[in-house]
TrEMBL record, chain A:
Domain FAD-binding FR-type: 341-506
Subunit field text: Forms a heterodimer with IrtB.
InterPro entries linked to this entry: AAA+_ATPase, ABC_transporter-like_ATP-bd, ABC_transporter-like_CS, FAD-bd_FR_type, FNR_nucleotide-bd, P-loop_NTPase, Siderophore_ABC-ATPase, SIP_FAD-bd
PANTHER family given in the database record: IRON(3+)-HYDROXAMATE IMPORT ATP-BINDING PROTEIN FHUC
Cofactor(s) essential for the protein: FAD
Protein name: Mycobactin import ATP-binding/permease protein IrtA
PROSITE patterns listed in its UniProt record: ABC_TRANSPORTER_1, ABC_TRANSPORTER_2, FAD_FR
Length: 668, 358
């Protein structure tokens, strides 16, 4: 049960109701932000939730009990409130003002105690107001003053904190300062926060749960990425706008369209009610100037939903598998019945440039109907058998290049049960020049045949490649996989080693994302982990909160990511910073080092020489409430592992560390 | 519960209690309290000095040796009677009434967050006066009866003003204006009552209205003392609630204070203090108005109801000395002196308020 919820709540100040039969659950441990136009009743709702206003109908439940049956002081010990314009008495010092937050914990005779002093000290530390302690509140800047008020509400030490427009009258830097403090508080103490905010973009950035209010009723509620759409903003604020992904935070960014000073095309579109909103996934690489009306979006046929025309797809359909002659040997059985790992013959069905450094290759083939491990690919790893550069034709049957060993691993092929394992050794035994290269990748998406977004008739998988390429003397140089991907064309063949759907489920070893019962997660990785993170995000259910941090080379590499969960996605464009620096900093700011003595920090994890061996430390199903998943360049992961385990004292059973690759080394 | 929450509780539980950084802060806190305490001590000394000055160098001065002898219980002809039956009860009433006025003024000023909002400016004092004058003239009321009448009159006026000013939401100009209008109305009523009555009665009432300690007796001092023994200890909880209330209604409610009830309680306490003092001494002009802001200055910006009460007492005792000695021919009623002191201060506050634009 939610700590705070409203049931059919109607609020009014002797007159027409301002909040009208509204029901709302405040998700525990999350930041809920209430937005809406002026006079929509958002502040009134907050006052109602805080017991300041007696409902005209319905009720507010605090911890399952009607808030008005509880005493004012009892409520004040559970729920703190910071109203819009609190007044500071003349000449009061910061410490004194913060101390007044202890009022509900003091009684007629109970005087100021060491406990109170500690609470004030903690509140000041969290809000960075320690150095302001002895200054008068009236001489502080707006942002400092607001931090002091927040500290006062913190000193109350409540599980719930309600803030009414905490950023009013502040300049933009101070607005961020205040919201960061609140965010920090939510993360470090798990305090459930409810904020009324009028800045939609900041709300989208800082909210785990966004509630849009109009005329005292909820219009939409959920994660900002699902709530903030052009239609919603138009309906709630009566303002046409464009919604684009915020290049800094990855959250939706609302660009208002007024009557003046707007490119003419935009105002014409806005006037005609045409929205630019695109369906997630479907058209990321699509020419962004092409416009879809809302009507078109809903009526388009699924097959023309995507980039590549269907005629090219049919041309790329691999030939059906020739059944091998049935041998008398009784030890021969069909490969999909005995081998958990199968070889899938596929062909490139489509390619798509997601950004300067990301390219999506869609592979398709009849074999893939046997591919899979449970419902969602998550960070499912597969092996791509990159054909050698010397191969006669890139469209030749891939299994023919590698010989019968791999042909026998295809679904439908007959396989000697003794040969089900050991393929890797046999592959290594092949001559280097003819076997090509093997690379590990994660599956970004798996669409079975008949899926709404399927391009062809067979199941297909999306693989996002990071193109770490340079052009030297007109020749593309880089890893074999990236070179293959960069030059991949529709119809090119690729042999994929992956799990057999019939024998593998969610526990398949190629999936490492195992949050168990964790409700709060951290996903962090560089661009090589981006496809896996995006895939995981898509599968996360609502109710999971936390952070996803993805470091990419450039702002242009920020990809669309959608999730139903409350996980906040942050893209970190690296620019000229060293690889991993920004990611490490972001991880540090999210998982702060507890104060000395607060937790027993872990011992230094044993050293892994990432040049010699793979840093691969994963977890089994955890029952912990927190789970972290870190992947990418090995030395970067090693550094973060050191930080999380040794400095932040996080139990290693809660974190999966995966060195996907090593700078300057290639996988074998 | 998320991990972060668990981390939070761990943090709380395991945080080492005495952090060195706390020490100076704690010292600072107690240093402040000592500061207010010292101011209160000085105020007390000031009150004693003013009384002593009045006894030794005022009109009909008493020789120091005679004073000591008389205080020591000896009968000093001409001195003992004057000391015990006139000067000391007068000083006692002055201290008690001054303290009541001072505390009442500070409560109203802080409750309504406006230095102009003292009971004598916003008409609460006039309510007490009007009721008391009516009681004196028509029923010959005295003692407790007069106190109760004054209290009833003041309370009615306070509530009327409060309702006019819309339940305290508009504590600024609107409340002050409402108070001034009510005060003018009540002054008219008082004038009317005075002109309708016998001249001798009217002159008694008139002197009472100016505010005077000259009719002080031990009986009156005792009456006032009894009332204050009940009322003054209530200043402690009142102060702790005022500290929360002055952060704004919503903030106070968020901190678990029952705003409406508390405000009503504070109004009743302030009215009671003004009423019991007014009943004994008459409205001592501007003592309520002056005491709060002066105490605030003395305590370097820290509001303290106790300091305001002591400042009120000092104001009245000092004014008593001035009233007796400023004109060589005739002693003045105390209220004239406090009024003369208060008027310029009122103008100064108005000018300053205008400048600040609040």
């Amino acid at each position: 049960m939610a700590l705070l919820q409203a049931e059919d709540l109607t609020l009014a100040y002797d007159g027409p109701s301002i909040v009208d039969e509204l029901s709302l659950e405040i998700p525990a441990g999350e930041v809920t932000i209430i937005v809406g136009a002026n006079g929509c009743g958002k502040s009134t709702l907050l006052r109602g939730l805080a017991r300041l206003l007696k409902p005209a109908g319905g009720k507010v439940l605090l911890d399952g009990e009607d808030i008005h049956t509880r005493g004012a002081r009892e409520v004040a010990k559970m729920l703190g409130l910071l109203p819009q314009t609190p007044t500071a008495p003349d000449g009061i010092t910061v410490r004194e003002l913060i101390g007044r937050g202890r009022y509900p914990h003091q009684g007629w005779f109970k005087r100021w105690s060491a406990q109170d002093e500690d609470a004030v000290e903690r509140a000041m530390t969290l809000t960075s107001t320690v150095e302001l302690a002895e200054r008068a509140v009236d001489e502080l800047s707006g942002g400092q003053r607001q931090r002091v008020w927040i500290a006062m509400a913190l000193a109350q030490e409540t599980e719930l904190l309600l803030l009414d427009e905490p950023t009013t009258y502040l300049d933009v830097a101070h607005q961020l300062e205040v919201l960061d403090v609140i965010s920090e508080l939510n993360r470090s103490r798990g305090t459930t926060v409810v904020i009324v905010l009028h800045d939609l973009n900041l709300a989208a950035r800082y909210a785990d749960h966004l509630v849009a209010l109009k005329h005292g009723k909820i219009v939409a509620a959920g994660h900002p990425s699902t709530v903030v759409t052009e239609e919603l903003v138009k309906s709630v604020f009566g303002m046409p706008c464009r919604v684009i992904p915020d290049p800094v935070a990855g959250t939706p960014l609302v660009l208002p369209i007024g009557r003046h000073r707007v490119l003419r095309a935009e105002s014409v579109l806005a006037a005609n009610g045409i929205h630019r909103t695109r369906q997630p996934d479907a058209a990321i690489g699509e020419d962004t100037t092409s416009l879809l009306t809302a009507e078109e979006l809903t009526t388009r046929e699924p097959q023309i939903d995507t980039i590549t025309a269907t005629d090219t797809a049919t041309g790329a359909t691999p030939q059906s598998v020739e059944p091998l002659p049935v041998a008398e040997d009784s030890s021969l059985r069909r490969a999909e019945e005995i081998s958990a790992m199968l070889a899938f013959s596929t062909r490139v069905l489509a390619t798509e440039d997601l950004s300067a450094n990301f390219k999506r290759v869609t592979l398709s083939g009849a074999d893939l109907s046997h591919f899979g491990a449970g419902a969602h690919p998550l960070d499912l790893r597969i092996k791509l058998m990159i054909p050698p550069a010397s191969a006669a034709s890139s469209t030749a049957e891939p299994e023919s290049v590698l010989g019968s060993d791999f042909a026998a691993l295809r679904p439908g092929a007959l396989l000697n049960s003794e040969d089900a394992g050991g393929w890797y050794k046999r592959w290594l035994a092949l001559p280097t020049e003819s076997r090509g290269d093997m690379r590990t990748y994660t599956v970004r998406a798996l669409r079975p045949a008949g899926h709404r977004d399927n391009l062809g008739e067979h199941p297909e998988i999306d693989i996002d490649f990071v193109l770490h390429l340079q052009k030297l003397d007109g020749q593309l140089t880089g890893g074999p996989a990236t070179v293959w991907a960069a030059t991949a064309e529709v119809g090119d063949a690729m042999l994929v080693l992956g799990p057999n759907k019939a024998l593998c489920d969610e526990t398949y070893g190629g999936i490492e994302f195992r949050p168990g019962t964790a409700k709060r997660i951290l996903l962090a990785g560089d661009e090589t982990a981006a496809p896996a993170i995006c895939s995981i995000l898509e599968s996360l259910p609502a109710g999971i909160t936390g952070h996803a941090l993805i470091e990419v080379p450039d702002t242009g590499d920020i990809l669309g990511s959608s999730t139903r969960s409350g996980v906040g996605v942050q893209w970190l464009p690296r620019g000229s910073h060293p690889h991993g620096e920004m990611l490490a900093a972001a991880v540090r700011s999210i998982v702060a080092i507890p104060a000395a003595g607060a937790v027993v920090t872990g011992a230094d994890p044993e050293d892994v020489d990432v040049d010699e061996q793979i840093l691969w430390e994963t977890t089994t199903e955890s029952t912990q409430p927190f789970y972290a998943w870190l992947a990418g360049e090995a030395s970067m992961i090693k550094e973060m592992r050191r930080y999380l385990v040794r400095n932040a004292g996080i139990d290693r059973k809660q974190v999966a560390f995966m060195g996907y690759w090593r700078r300057g080394k290639s996988e074998l | 519960m998320t991990r972060a929450q668990r981390g939070g509780t761990k943090f709380t539980a395991l945080k080492p209690a005495p952090v060195p950084a706390l020490e100076p802060a704690g010292a600072q806190r107690s240093g402040r309290t000592i500061g207010v305490g010292r101011v209160n001590l000085l105020l007390g000394v000031g009150i004693l000095l003013a009384i002593a000055l009045n006894l030794l160098t005022g009109r009909h001065p008493i020789e120091f040796s005679d004073l000591l002898a008389a205080l020591g219980g000896q009968r000093v002809p001409g001195v003992s009677f004057m000391l015990w039956e006139d000067r000391l009860p007068q000083a006692a009433v002055g201290i008690l009434a001054g303290a009541a006025f001072g505390a009442s003024g500070a409560i109203f000023q802080r409750l309504l967050r406006n230095p102009l909002a003292s009971p004598d400016v916003i008409g609460v004092g006039y309510g007490a006066s009007a009721a008391a004058v009516a009681g004196m003239l028509f029923f010959g009321a005295q003692g407790i009866g007069l106190s109760l009448l004054a209290f009833a009159g003041a309370l009615v006026v306070a509530l009327v003003i409060y309702v006019i000013a819309d339940s305290g939401k508009h504590t600024g100009a609107r409340l002050i204006l409402a108070g001034i209008a009510v005060a003018a109305l009540l002054q008219g009523i008082i004038q009317y009552l005075l002109t309708r009555t016998d001249v001798r009665n009217a002159s008694d009432a008139l002197r009472w209205l100016t505010g005077s300690l000259s009719a002080s007796t031990w009986e009156r001092a005792g009456l006032l003392g009894c009332a204050l023994v009940i009322l003054l200890p209530l200043l402690m909880p009142a102060a702790s609630r005022l500290r929360i209330l002055e952060l704004g209604d919503d903030t106070a409610a968020g901190l678990g204070l029952r705003v409406r009830g508390t405000r009503l309680g504070l109004i009743i306490l302030g009215v009671a203090l003004t009423a019991v003092a007014t009943a004994v001494t008459g409205p001592l002009a501007f003592v309520s108005f002056l005491a709060g802001p002066l105490a605030l200055r003395l305590c370097q910006g820290r509001s303290h109801l106790g300091a305001a009460a002591l400042t009120g007492a000092l104001l009245v005792t000092a004014a008593t000395y001035l009233a007796g000695n400023v004109l060589p021919e005739t002693p003045l009623p105390v209220g004239v002196v406090t009024g003369a002191l208060g008027a310029p201060f009122l103008i100064w506050v108005l000018v300053r308020t205008n400048k600040e634009g609040t």
